[in-house]
Hints:
Blueprint: H1 5-35, H2 39-67
Amino acid sequence: VPMTVAEFENYAMNICVTIFMVWMGCIIWILGKESGGGKWAYIALSLALGLGFVGFIAKIVLVEFVLKGE
């Protein structure tokens, strides 16, 4: 069964954004290690930049499970 354009776009977007999130996680890790600010600076950096990840995952959960469940 061939895939529609909308299905392809949905899969491609989720895969690409997931790869981008992992890459950004690596950048956060490197910034935290090289900043020399210590444990608390790394925690603050991770929380501030990691909130975007939480928002993206929350959006997926809401769209997939709450809105499609209606």
